[in-house]
Structures are given as structure tokens and as C-alpha cells.
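dumping these here so i dont lose them again. two proteins, back to back, each one seq then C-alpha cells. dont judge the mess
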Amino acid sequence: MDVTYALLCLATVTSLLSPARGHARAAGDLDHGVDLINDLMTNDPESLCKYVQCINPVEEEACPEGTFFMAGIAQYGCCGACVQFRGLNEACTGSIHPQYCGGYGIYGQSGDCSDPWRKLRDLRNSIEENLYTQDNVVRSSWCGYNIACGGSRVCEIDPTAKGCVYIQRRYDEARQPGSGLYLDYRDDYRWRPTCTKEGFFTEKQCKGPLGEQRCVCVDPDGNRLYGDAFSYQEDLYDSMNCKCSRRVWELQQAGEKSVTLHCAANGNYEPLQCEDGWCYCIDPATATPYGSRLPEGAMDRLDCYNKTLVGSQYLRRCESEYHAHMELYDLMAFKGVQGPSTLLNCDADGSYSGKQCTIGSCRCYDKYMNNIIAGLAGSGCQCARDIWMNKQMNINIEISCEVDSGSYKSIQTRADYAFCVDSDGVRAGPLVYQSAAGNLGCASALLCQNGGSEKNCENACQGCSRDDYVK
């Protein structure tokens, strides 16, 4: 068969892949094109997509409520679409779970992720392509995230699901009227996390009792990242989105050794950013770049340049030192020589992290590494750093750190009261009178917050009577 004719057949067939045109085609007239498509789908799916014109391309933000944008799942796997998964009690053929093949797989199977096309093929097989709508939505026969296709082949709550959605569900169950699982005087420290559609933690989490909250930046599994703000830091607290901190984490997970993005104290982007010698402006509220990109030497010509904040050099002391070390390391590696490692830790604003180590010991420093603020660093330096920060702001708050350590004492006292705190100093247990401080079970309170059993919640203050709790 002539190649030109084959491509003409292929073009004719792919023009009929549009949902608006339907899937009906005349048998015989397009046999050659169909055979060629089948061959390409089997042996060279990437080439097939060169001939498919995507219909109604959309961005993730444009997908209707209750759908997920996914690339490579529509029109023979060549185009993106908004996917609507099955909900609770709907008939199903499988489930979508983040732990299988980077996001796709059949519930109950471990999945072989060595085939990069498998996850797309599996998901495409669950798509009912005859259910296209004008807004480019396709319907899957799989259950959505965090629900499972059970033995009766209907979608049901996944009893094995943990993480953000699990904590949300346990919190909501406890707060149901009449459940008796949430006692205001005992459980007011518990907080409800915010989750993504896929069930991961959103970038920003505000934890602790109302009026005592501290918002922090976290990774998708809820682990702490750079960036935080207390409710009394109104400007930082109200505008906080953590998009910069999450992006820095993503680049580091991807293997970037030296990330030069600059994050504000609350984890947002600073207005001026420079990468690989080029600088640009970004809107901290939306994380959207705007305007021109200029060489670093001309960054002062950008609208967002602030001489007081940035100075004449973009890189700050810690990251400048770290960046120079990594360039030397890479150069030596290029020449086949193992370069020296470094224990230097920098925060996402370019300053020194609180915990700095040498061989054999770790200490807590201020962000400029001018002063030691705790002799030995225990599990971290958050307590010592908070004391230092409050002094800079002329704020006097009673905070207790572990002896000769930068981490918080697990039990804090204020006036006649005592309570447990987490590693960020946020109240993470009931508020009791000091006479009952010895009854506090901080480990149990933490388990209660993270969706533990009713026994965990009861043991947050073991053997306490109603009168032991602060009214």
C-alpha cells in the first residue's frame, strides 16, 4: 500500500474520532486506515497521536466540578479530557488509587509499573468514549479516589484508605450529632485537614484550636515544609498559599540539587524569582509569572524588583554558599572525581535553616547563622527559632524548649493551665489545669488527631474527670 494513501486513510479515520462526529464508520472504505491505526496503537502509539486533532482541549482549571483532568486518555489516548469517575453505590469495574503505577491500576492488583503505557491503557479501557459531552468530559467505569470497587462491583468506602481523607472522615464521624465521640471540652484541639481531589494533603494546613491556629506548609503526605504563619501575623496568615514551598519540594524530589526559587516566610512566592541566570516577576497570590524575563544582571529593571528586599545580588548567603559547593561537586563529578559532601542546610527563602550539623553534633542557629540559639539540636529547632523570631518582633510569649535543645517540650504550661503541643508548638491535646498535667497523654492525643480510636482520644488525659479540664 502506498504510504501517502495510507496516511490519507489515517487522516480520514482520525477525523472521525471527534466525539461530535460519533464512532460510526463505513466498513470497507476505511479498512486500510483502521489497520494502520491498529498497528500504530500496538507498536507506536506516540506516532498515532501526530495525526489526531484533539477536540475541545481544556486546562485542569477548566474541568467541571466532580471531574479530574487527565492527559492521554481520550481519542485513542492522544488527548486530555475531564474524567468523571463512579461515585459511592454506583456500578464499577475497578478503582483508581495513587499507589498503583503512579496513579492508575486495578484495585487489588499490585500492578507492573515497568510498562510506561500500561497505566494509560488501563485507564483508557475504563473510559466509555460514547459518553463525550460538549465540555470534553468522559465517564470512567472505575471508582474515584479513596473509594473502592467492592466484591459486589459497586463503589464503596475504602477501609484501607489512610492519610488526609481518612483523617477527614474520622473527624466528620466524630462530629456527627449524637455520636458521643467528640467532647467539646476534651477534643477542641482536633482539626480537620484539607485534602485534594485525589486525597492528598493540600499545600496549606491550618492546625490547632480556633484562635490558637498556626498554618503550615506540607508535602502531599502531610510532612512539614518551609513556611508558616500564626493567626496574629495577619498579612502572612490571610494571604498564605504555600505554592512556592510545595514547588521547591517537587523540584528537590525530582533530583534538583540546587533550587534557587525564593519563598516568603509563609511559603508563598516572593515577587522576584531567578532561575538559571534569568529573572522574572510572579504574582504571589496566584503563583502566575508575568512580564518579561531578563538576565540576572538586569533584574533591577523588572517591575517587581525591590532593592531593600533583594539588594544587588539575588542569591542569599546560605544558598550562595550551597550553590557554589554544588557547582564544584558537579564539575568534579564530570571529571570522574568524587567531590566532598556538605552538611549545610538552607531554607526556601535562601537563609540558613535552624538546624546545622557538623560531624558528631547539631546546633540551632538564627537564620543568618550569626548566633547559636540552642546548644544541641534535638528533633529540630522550631522552638528555639520561634523564641528568636518573637524577640525580633518584640513579642513576649512564654515558650518552653527541651533542656539545651531547640525542640518544644511536649507539655507546655501557661498560668494555671497545661497542655500538649506538637513539634510546631501548636496545642495538640486538651487544655487542663496544672494539677492534671501528669495525666496528659500527648502520644495518645496525637493518634486521636490522626484518626485513631476512641480509646486514644480518652487517653489524651488519662483518668481525668470533667473538673480537670479547663471550662
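---- next one ----
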Amino acid sequence: MAKARTELAVLSALFIAATGVLVFVEVADDMNEADGQAFDHHVLALMRPYPDDPGRPWGPWWLKEAAADITALGGISVLGLFALIVIVFLLAQRKWLSAVLLPVGLAGGVALSEGLKAVFERERPPVAVQAVETINASFPSGHALLATVFYLTVAVMLTRAFPQKRLKALVLGVGVLLALLVGATRIYLGAHWASDVIAGWAVGAAWAMVLWLAAYAVERFQKRRHASLQDHETRERTQAATKV
């Protein structure tokens, strides 16, 4: 049963990674076409229903403040601080592989984000509609990408600490929710087109699954090596006993 669950988890991770890549390719292909641009402008118009004040997003004033707070959860400074806290905890628990995996994953996410932005060089929504400051290219959303990588990776790590299925599902659900909220606030605040965020979610999910698969492969290799060493020691003891 345990082996079947593990194989299902591996297949699920492979499926999510492949789907993420395919979604990104599709969105990247559509963003410069008429249909893709129409979709982005339609979503932006829904978020900016006040022609006399294009910088004012839909909803009450406090919703904008709340969105600004939530969007910071996908910023590199906040994620770096959270990552440092989690890494210290993992080191204290002697979870060496996870402690290495998390910063590698976050650094890889930054490299993916900046590299893809440099390749596509897409302009952001008009400055007049942006409710937050932006500094680089628009596609894909770095906040959505990094939040997806970080919160999904941490959520998967935490599922190992809970034997109950409902707690595992709760932890994963919280990780997904945080990633979705960060991306949604980027659209709401006018920092990104909707397709930027969808692409960021797709790449982030794919990268998070690649990290999990890499960790699984390393753990499996270590278990096989440990089992091989045990078998070798057992054979040596048996041979020694036979000689005696």
C-alpha cells in the first residue's frame, strides 16, 4: 500500500510538472495574439471600473490595503526571511536534504523568473493603473512564481510531519491558497497582466514538483545504498561466523 501511494505521488508530481510547462508554453504563445491581449485587458478593466480614477482598484479602500499586505508574501525579502527561519528549523531537526533543497529551490525560482523576464521583455500594465511600484519586465510574474515554489515546497515538507490524511490535505491546501492569493493580488493591484500570473503559477508549480522529484530520487538512492551496506555487513558477519 505504501509503495502504491509513493508511486501515485511520483506520477502526480510528473503530471503537474508537465502540465505546468505546457500551460506556460501556451500562455507565452497567446500573450501577443489578439485573443490573449483581449483577455488581459478584459481582466484589467474588471479590476479598474472607475474611468476617472484608473489607479483605484475595485472595492473598498481597505481591500487595496489588504492586497498590498498579501502581495508582500511573494516578495523576495519576505520569502528570504521565511526561508531562513525554515532552514534553521530544518537544521535543528537534522533534515539535511530539506535544508539544502529549500534555498536551492528559491534560488532556482529567482533565476527562472529573471531569465524568463529577460527573454520575453513584456511591458507591464500602464503605470496609471499600477497601485504598487514595479521595477522589471512583466512576464512571468515573479511574485506568483516564487510564492508557488516556496509555499508548495514547504507544504510538501510539512505533510511528512502529519500522519493523518486530513492534516496533509490541510497543509497542502494552505500552501496552494497562499500562492493563489499572492498571484491574484498582483492582478488586482495592476502590477501584472492576468497571463503573467498564470504563467508564474505554472512555472512555479512545475519547478516545485521537479524539486520534490529530485528529493525523492536522492532519498531513494540513500535508502538503497544503506540497504546495500547492511547486506554487505551481514554477509561479512556470516562468513566470519562460518570460518569460526
